[in-house]
Amino acid sequence: MDRRVEHLDPPRPARSDPADWPLDGADGSLPPDRAQAILEAAKRIGSLLKAKDHPFALAGGVAAYAHGAAVRLQHDADFCIRREDADAVTHTLREAGLQVFLPPEDWLVKARCLGQDVDLILELAKRPVTSELLDRAEVLPVDSVHMPVLSATDLVSSLLAAFSEHHCDFGAVLSVVRPLREKVDWRRVRAERGGAPMPAAFLFLLERLQVIEPEEADR
């Protein structure tokens, strides 16, 4: 059993050509486990984007998984793309037989792949996805497929930015931060997020749990 995701099936043979992947649910053989289904969807989207040389980076829970965090995938696969590339990416996915649609929110594009939701994010933490953000991505394996993944610092910063009075699940983010702490530039995270109440509270919690050094020692 994989230590990072519960109830994963054994890895399937890799498909080197995205054209060999089945259409969305067309073969009726979706993985029985939701986490594995999300991974398969992420692998297919990543393969399609790589094949067409689209700039992108994997984000969200699957990015945390790729970095080695003990996450349980339950919702969707997230990818960061630049707004100026949205039309080209949408064309690539539709050409591959995937459903793509525009939600009311103007900061993302949604798709369906292998029965799973995929978010193509144009703005991460209320900031436009830029070439600089994508250039900082690290190429990591997602099961059998290597693809650009948000840097640990950008990933953690985006997770802290999502905290608010209405959404503040410290426990879920703590499980991501612990294994990534040595890869994160905490000075930059503090500079970007430490001024807001909820991220500041989470950073204080990390200090008390001795996950990170106190701010004074980090200077």
From TrEMBL:
Organism of provenance: Streptomyces sp. Y1
Region (Disordered): 1-27
One Pfam family in the UniProt entry: NTP_transf_5
Segments passing through the bilayer: none
Protein name, UniProt field: Nucleotidyltransferase family protein
Compositional bias annotation for Basic and acidic residues: 1-18
Origin: domain of life: Bacteria
